[in-house]
Amino acid sequence: MVRRLKLLLTSGLTVAFILGVSLHPTHGQNRSAEVTPADYARWRTELRNWGRWGPNDQKGTANLITAAKVRDAAKLVQSGIVVSLAHAVPQQAAADVPENRIFKRTTNGISATGTTDNYDVSYHGLSVAHTDAFCHFFFEGQMYNGYSVADSISAETGCKQGSIMGRRDGIVTRAVLYDMPQLKGVEWIEPGTPITRADLEAWERKAGVKVGPGDIILLYVGRWKRRAAMGPHAGQVAGYFADTIPFFKERDIAFAGHDFNIDWNPRPGWGPEQGIISNPIHQALLVWMGIGIVENLDLEQVAETARRLRRYEFLMTFAPLPVEGGTGSPLNPLAIF
């Protein structure tokens, strides 16, 4: 048996071949194709975290970022290198920055001794680094933890439940970078590419790191590098495929980070005709599981630093603006190696 195994390995085959498991490059795609909208509908109930931290919970999986978790994350700081994870805010319209999403900075009167300015920003969308509060998304009249939308949100008060105030003390925890261009041997991942659970697990095997309870997963696809080379784009996004949803639940991830919108797009076979509303990953994380989202991050410098140091886990911290009733906040998160 040992001699036969050695012969097979010499022939370029693997132990997986003997076990009947295909490791063809399309294996991850085949596995993903097995996930259907019917699975998604079932997970809506099966994967809920409602009530897990009590009926009045406002933090979701951020509850897993305990004092002990923060202390352990702080131990990851070795070199003292600090990297911003936010791109310069957009002040001109582009394909991924519609007119109503421009960060408007207005400089006020300039005196002999100083000046001031005003900021006007609509940060949800595809351009500004931001975090989503739970009240940003809901389904059938309910948001995370079962709060009623009708009772919780109004134009006058904003969000009474699930607002960004649940994170006013900030987030300090371990982050793990999932470097998809390095995994695939490319400069960037092309828009419209679904990032599957098999992709995430393949990166874990390659890099020797795994995201776990209370962590932030950072999905790097090279969005800003591609933008600099090819120009801005919108509509197609390389993001998390639906088969990653149980992965988030099983790993007890606190936040999902990405350098674009976390939802892959376009989604053939995953549209309204299949009973799927827009942004299904947003819905699953924010509404069902109470997992936070941090989007439009600029991960170019952190990816470069991680590759140079060969360290794909580090301390990450951010704090939202404490806006009562807010559906989220723009951010300038920091990675500290």
List the helices and strands and how they pair.
Elements: H1 2-10, H2 15-19, H3 27-33, H4 37-46, H5 67-74, E1 82-84, E2 104-107, E3 117-120, E4 130-132, H6 149-152, E5 153-154, E6 158-159, E7 171-179, H7 180-184, E8 194-195, H8 197-207, E9 216-220, H9 223-230, E10 239-240, H10 245-251, E11 255-258, H11 280-289, E12 292-295, H12 300-309, E13 313-318, E14 328-330, E15 334-336
Parallel strand pairs: 7-9, 8-10, 9-11, 11-12
Antiparallel strand pairs: 1-15, 2-3, 4-12, 4-14, 5-6, 7-13, 13-15
Describe this structure as you would to a colleague.
With 337 residues, the protein is of the alpha/beta class. The chain has two domains: 2-31, no CATH class; 36-87 and 129-336, Putative cyclase (Glucose Oxidase, domain 1). Helix content is 28%, strand content 17%. The chain has twelve helices and 15 strands. It has helices spanning 2-10, 15-19, 27-33, 37-46, 67-74, 149-152, 180-184, 197-207, 223-230, 245-251, 280-289, 300-309, and strands at residues 82-84, 104-107, 117-120, 130-132, 153-154, 158-159, 171-179, 194-195, 216-220, 239-240, 255-258, 292-295, 313-318, 328-330, 334-336. The protein has a nine-stranded mixed sheet, sandwiched between helices. A two-stranded antiparallel ribbon has the order 2-3. The longest helix is centred in the middle third of the chain and has 11 residues, at 197-207.
